[in-house]
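Quick question: what would this complex look like in 3D?
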Amino acid sequence: MEFRIATFNANSIRSRMEIILAWLDRHRPDVLCVQETKVQDVEFPKTPFLDNGYTCAFKGEKKYNGVAILSRHPLTKVFAGLDDEPKDPARLIRADIRGLTVVTTYIPQGQDPLSDKFTYKLQWFQRLGRYFESHFAPTDRVVWMGDMNVAMEDKDVYDPAGLRGHVCFCPEVQQSMSKLVEWGWVDLFRKHCPDPGQYTFWDYRMNALRRNLGWRLDYIFATRPVAERCMACRIDKEPRMLESPSDHTFLMADLDF
DNA sequence: ATGGTCGGCAACCGA
């Protein structure tokens, strides 16, 4: 039985409602994870999702961050935030859905390599590693998806030489991410699509989408038992992006359960 | 060449 999962950095869920609802209607995923919802829980726009058959789990704050899981199936064991302090609850949420554990993260961007925010980003990777170790085993059925704010390889950015040293494309961050991946994650998009130049993010500021100056910052990872059951993974450029701009695309995977 | 544009939300910050 097909089980479709997807992820999307919305950069404000309220300003992307039309795009998200149209996309849900077109692809009918079982699960859609959303990052950068930028909305407090009391203001989360759950009614349109419920009306379209999607139950929601979300954890947000005013102005910044915020994550959500939309699902056509009941959600159980919903937990937000890392376990240790500072909890930073609005960057991680997880839930169990039909025997699958779904985790979504919005990893800190890091701003500048010399900033405190960059230190915080590196610490966040370590804390996330401890989170995985304490809650899951690589033999469990788990998926981890979201905006990781890392491009892992040269082929994941439009200009590797020019971008080297950027907070999303530097050795410290790539090594931190590699350590997490080594725990037992399979990058589903790379498993199915090895070609270079396939991106999920384009900077607003450079007409980057039109010029395809992109980055692959969004990922769907799965533990091996799930990855073995992944039939396809693809980036989906919602056509409405071109009329109502957004800077990330949807990324989706089809599992066979 | 050394910029630019979004979103939140009311002056800038974050990306």
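Answer marked as accepted. Chain A has one domain: 2-256.
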